[in-house]
Every structure is written in C-alpha cells, then in structure tokens.
Design a protein that fits this description.
Organism: Ferrimonas aestuarii
Strand order of the largest sheet: 1-2-3-4-5-7-8-9-10-11-12-13-14-15
Radius of gyration: 21 Å
Number of helices: 2
InterPro entries: DUF2860
Largest sheet: 14 strands, antiparallel, barrel
Distance between the termini: 33 Å
Number of domains: 1
Helix content: under 10%
Protein name: DUF2860 domain-containing protein
Shape: globular
Order of helices and strands: HEEEHEEEEEEEEEEEE
Keywords: Signal
Length: 331
C-alpha cells in the first residue's frame, strides 16, 4: 500500500519546521537543545488505505485509477540527537525529524546542525531511505502479471532557520533516482525512451512563521521542484504552497498542515497520447498530549492524513488516507 503523502520520493520536503528540536515554542536562548544525548522513541499503530502495490494484475482498463488496499499499520518512530558546543550550538541527529512528522512525513535522516546569532541555525542532512523501494518494471500492462524492480538513489538537503531573525526559513534539496530494470512502455510497443524514470531533481522552498500568540503559530510556505527525468514524458516542474497552524494549550499540542501543488510535464506520454497534468492536495492533523497518565517523559500522539492526486490521465489518479495513535518516550 502506497503512502505518497508520507514517503514518496521528495514529497516529504515541505516547509522547514523545527527539524532538530521539533518544538517551535522552545527557548531559542537554550541553543539546539540540552547538551549530550537526547531524543524520542515511539510507536504508531493505525489503519489506512492507498495504492495496492502487491496486485500484480491491474483490474479494469489501463487508463483507470489504480487498485487500492486497506491495511493495519505499525510504524516505529524516533530520533537520536547529540548536542555539543559551549552554548549547545552544534548538533548531530539521526532518525525521523519531529518537524517532518508534524507535517505527516516519515523518512530517516542523518545530519549536522549548528546555531548562529540569536536563534538562527543551518542544517545539512542525508536521507538514505527516501529514494529507495520497489516499482513495477513496466506499469503499463493490463490483463497479465507485472513484475517489480528496485529503485535506488540518494537525497540531500540543507535547511536554514530564522533567516535575518524574522522567522524566515529556506530549504534546498537534491536527489537522484535509478530504476534498476526500467521497462516502462515495452509491453505497449511505444517510445520507451520517453518513459524512462531515471532522474535527478532539486527542490527549493521558503517559509515564514508568524506568531499569533505566545502558544500559537501560523506558517506559510511556497515551493518549487524540478524533476529532470531521462524520459521527457516523466519530467516535470512542480509549484506548491502549504499552510500550517500549530498551537499548544497546557499539555495539549495540535498542528494542522494543508498543502497544494501543481505539476506540468514536459512531453506527451506515448501510451496515452496525452501530456500529463497533475494537481495534488492533502491535509495532515497531528495531536499530542504530554505527560500522559502523569508519566513525566511520555506523550500520547494521534495523526490523521489524507492526500489526493488528480491527473488528466486517469491511470495516475491516487488518493490515500491514514489514521493512527501511539506513545512516545522523550529523553
């Protein structure tokens, strides 16, 4: 089952949040966190629906929406950090960024951050699991079994927080991906070179955080992505925007992230004789309750997410959702 809004390559790159501390309401004078080791470990269990990636024989005509599947989900979460420096202004981190999780994103990250000035910081990271997985070697087959192949690649990103001391943030990411046994379109006998999914790409975004009160914040983000695939029918430019609201009341934490993006593809898809044009929207709601049952370092978490991609080629239409609850331990 696909979770595109959680882990599809590079869609995780939303507006920058508190990637290291995960707390936009923290005291900036304390640096990047407490000295030494810190972090959180958690487990999320839930239920969701998305593309059925195990159904090898597509039902219905080729140009129809993908088959879906519902399933239970068990997902470990967490991040380990080591903070050092005279003012706790340097940090190494590994795991799943709390800032990404707030936006409904799950991806492993290994990186280094440092703070400069009053509450401004810069981070560099490598995401080893983002451009990895399995896809159909030739997805354009109907009436007989499709075979899977591996996708490999690398993703790197840089995040700058609180630029010019005004709450402005920026993000830059680069990635490459390689489909090991690319056979897109071979079954159809069309121009397979136009459908090659091997690619490089980059993503840039700027975001502004606006405090509404001492415990409420609004974030606005604009982003641009270039996906330069070898097959021009798979290459596209994407423009997007997102709006996030975060609040903390006592032991309660709440965040709502809403996003929209538009993709324009470079060339006509030879299988469908159309140039692909996509619109995508989604929302993620996250709730947290600190010190649950009086346990000092434990939190209850709940998440609900929905994503929908609408294409002029029905074959690419996708919608999925997820509901989950869990506990996390902070140390």
């Amino acid at each position: 089952m696909s979770r595109r809004w959680l882990c599809y390559p590079l869609l995780f790159l939303c507006h920058t949040g508190a990637y290291a501390q995960g707390d936009p309401f923290g005291d900036e004078s304390e640096g990047l966190g407490k000295g030494g080791f810190s972090g959180e470990l958690g487990l999320l269990v839930g239920y969701g629906e998305g593309v059925d990636e195990d159904r090898s024989v597509k039902s219905g005509p080729l140009n129809s929406k993908a088959d879906t599947k519902s399933a239970a989900i068990v997902m470990p979460l967490g991040q380990l950090r080591y903070t050092l420096g005279e003012h706790n202004d340097e940090q190494f981190f590994f795991g799943m960024s709390p800032g990404d999780l707030v936006e409904g994103v799950v991806a492993l990250e290994l990186g280094y951050a440092f703070q400069y000035g009053q509450g401004s910081s810069l981070a560099f990271s490598y995401l080893p699991t983002v451009v990895k997985g399995e896809v159909w070697a030739d997805p354009f087959i109907v009436g007989e079994a499709r075979k899977k192949t591996d996708v490999s690649g690398n993703a790197f990103r840089m995040q700058a927080e609180n630029l010019f001391d005004i709450g402005l943030s920026a993000e830059l990411a680069y990635y490459d991906q390689n489909v090991v046994d690319e056979r897109s379109g071979m079954h159809q006998g069309g121009d397979t070179e136009l459908l090659s999914r091997d690619a490089t790409g980059y993503y840039v975004s700027v975001s502004q955080e606006v405090p509404l009160s001492e415990r409420q914040m609004l974030g606005v983000s604009l982003d641009y992505r270039v996906h330069d695939a070898d097959g021009k029918a798979q290459a596209f430019d994407s423009y997007g925007a997102s709006l996030m609201y975060m609040a903390m009341v006592g032991q309660h934490r709440l965040s709502l992230n809403i996003e929209y993006s538009k993709r324009d593809y470079d060339a006509q898809n030879p299988v469908f004789s159309l140039t692909r044009d996509d619109s995508e929207y989604g929302a993620t709601l996250v709730y947290g309750y600190d010190k649950i049952m009086g346990w000092e370092d434990w939190s209850f978490n709940a998440v609900a997410g929905y994503s929908n991609l609408d294409s002029n080629i029905n074959f690419y239409d996708v919608s999925d959702y997820l509901f989950g609850v869990g506990l996390s331990y902070h140390f």
